[in-house]
Design brief:
It is built from two helices and nine strands; from the N terminus they run ααβββββββββ. It is globular. Helices cover about 10% and strands about 30% of the residues. Strands 2, 3, 4, 5, 6 and 7 form a six-stranded antiparallel β-sheet that branches. A three-stranded antiparallel β-sheet has the order 1-9-8, with no helix packed on it. By secondary structure, it is mainly β.
Length: about 170
C-alpha cells in the first residue's frame, strides 16, 4: 500500500464513521468510499511561485452566499494535459489555499472545483500534489459553506489526479 493509498483509506474511514464527517447519517449508511483518479506522479510538482508584491484583500464568495477573505499570494505555471496552465495561490490566517476547476468539472470532478493546501518550500517554491486534491464539504452536503473557485483558477485542461465526483 502506498502512502497515498493509506491516506485515502484513512479519509474514507473518517467519512464513513466520524461524527464530524461531511456526510449525513443517511449518506453514511451506504457509503463504500470516495472515488479517486489513479495516482499520477506527473501531477506531483515543485513549482516556483511568482509572489504578488502588494497583497490586497480578496473576497471569495461561498456556496451559501457569504464571503471569506483571502489575499492573492502568487501565481505559478505548470504543464498539464499537453499545455501550459497558470493558477493563483491564496492565503489567509489558516495558511495557503489553492482552489481550482478543471475541464472535467461536472463530468468527472465536482462542478464548483476542488481544493489543495500547497506546501511552502524554501526559495519561493511550493510543493503542489494534485493527487491530494479534494472536494469541498459542500459537494457532499449543502449545509456546508465553501469558497467558490475564482475565475482566474478555472482551467481548460484536465487534472486527472485526486478526488473524483461524489456519487451517493
Amino acid at each position: 500500500m502506498t502512502e497515498l493509498d493509506a491516506f485515502r483509506a484513512e479519509k474514507d474511514d473518517f467519512f464513513g464513521s466520524h461524527p464530524q464527517s461531511p456526510l449525513t447519517r443517511e449518506q453514511k449508511k451506504n457509503f463504500k468510499g470516495l472515488s479517486y483518479f489513479p495516482e499520477n506522479d506527473d501531477l506531483r510538482l515543485e513549482v516556483k511561485v511568482n509572489e504578488i508584491p502588494v497583497k490586497e484583500k480578496f473576497e471569495m464568495q461561498t456556496s451559501t452566499g457569504d464571503v471569506q477573505v483571502y489575499e492573492r499570494f502568487g501565481t505559478f505555471e505548470f504543464t498539464v494535459d499537453g499545455g501550459q496552465a497558470t493558477l493563483t495561490i491564496y492565503r489567509n490566517a489558516n495558511g495557503f489555499f489553492l482552489p481550482f476547476v478543471d475541464s472535467l468539472a461536472g463530468k468527472e470532478t465536482y462542478p464548483a472545483g476542488r481544493y489543495l493546501e500547497p506546501e511552502p518550500l524554501p526559495g519561493g517554491r511550493f510543493f503542489i500534489d494534485f493527487n491530494l486534491s479534494y472536494n469541498p464539504y459542500c459537494a457532499y452536503n449543502e449545509m456546508w459553506s465553501c469558497p467558490i473557485t475564482p475565475a482566474e483558477n478555472r482551467l481548460k485542461a484536465a487534472i486527472r489526479a485526486g478526488e473524483k465526483l461524489f456519487h451517493e
